[in-house]
Amino acid sequence: MQAGRAGGRQSTKINSMLLEGIFAPITTPFYPDERIYFKKLEFNVSRLSLTALAGLVVLGSTGEAVALDDAETREVLRIAAQSAHEEKVLIAGIGRESVKATVDLAEYAAAAGYDAVLVRNPCYYRPQLTHAALLHYFRTVADRSPLPVILYSIPKFTQAEIPLEVVAELAQHANIIGLKESSGSVDRVREVVQATRLAPRRTVTVTPIFEAVTGRMMSVKPAAAGNFISAEGLASGADGGIALAVAPPISARKTRTREVGFQVLTGSAANLKESLDAGASGAILGFATCAPQACQEIYTAWKEHDDRLALDKQQRIAEAGNLVASKLGIAGIKYACDFNGYFGGRPRAPLLPLTSETKTEVERLLAQIRN
To answer: Is 37 a catalytic residue?
Structure first.
């Protein structure tokens, strides 16, 4: 399959975009033999597209991106893009250890209809990855990427965060629009916001109510049928899937513009409200993959300046979010997805599934967070 026909979409390129609200980094479901279960992937993307989430991230850390080979990566990107609703911002995780491999995936993501790419810092040759090397890596990727770049700092996995001074310099690049900060530190979010306050202002296209407008929204194409897969059909083993809903035709959209600076997204559900107070524009939360409504409610209350309600909503998910997303990781998020009506399943080896005791604890904590 040629990259230019990856998803059958022709995107209208938007050089920057609004990154506000809650984004869910979707999981990658597998068969028992560890092949990718694409129909379950389609179901998850279709169902999450019906929520109030701002968008989806495909093949972030929660998607087990590092456990997929190149062919699988491209196929997951293609299938997910075909299943996502045009109203959602769609971000592709494409970080690789070399500039060439990362740019190749950026080009594929653009052909598949994505709106932006999420790029983690390379980390294998850590002693040689000086500030100069990191600047060269990200600048070269951004120069060559047909899509806007979102930096991704996740030190618990890479064992090295993107240095603050490097982020500040990269924020000046015309094609680098933001950062996902996954250190879990509110102070770090605040420091990044402060360090990038002088970044160039960008004009972005938004709806009349100031929600993001993406390339897919502006593309003219006929309504697509068959994107929503019946959970019952999957459970019965029918891979065909019958369309339960048909997306309406896209009519002419009214838009306006808005000025934004460098946008910072937190990766921590545990201190979402604090991070928003510190200047984050939104969040990419693993916990939102299994509990999108609960996470969205925190953001909505904060957006409406209802601090008391936002705190109540934050406290509601505190214990569950800490256990599922922070302590248990992929296996915890996947089991929580199963429990809340999405398809999770087992993680790919060498990651292990949860024990029966841990599953019981997850179920207890999620009993009041069913969405």
So the answer is: no
Identify the active-site residue in 37, 152, 299, 342. 152
**Quick check: helix, strand or coil at residue 16?**
coil
Helices and strands: H and E segment counts in the chain: 14, 10
Residues near 127 by beta carbon (within 8 Å), at least 6 away in sequence: none
Strands 202-206 and 176-181: unpaired
Asked whether the predicted pLDDT for residue 74 surpasses 90, the reply is yes
Structure token pair of residue 194 = 């402060």
Mean pLDDT over each residue of the chain, to the nearest integer: 89
Task: Report how far residue 120's alpha carbon sits from residue 57's, in angstroms, rounded to the nearest whole number.
Answer: 13
Out of 39, 40, 180, 313, the active site residue is: 180
- Answer whether residue 12 shows pLDDT above 90: no
Q: What is the mean pLDDT of residues 323-350?
A: 96
Q: Assess contact for 327 and 27: CB atoms under 8 A.
A: no
**b vs e for 161-185, b when ≥16 Cβ sit within 10 Å of the residue's Cβ?**
bbeeebbbbbbebebbbbbbbbbbb
Residue-wise pLDDT for 251-263, tens only, equals: 467 899 999 999 9
Active site residue 180: yes
DSSP type of residue 145: -
What are the two backbone dihedrals, phi and then psi, of residue 88, each rounded to the nearest 5 degrees? -100, 135
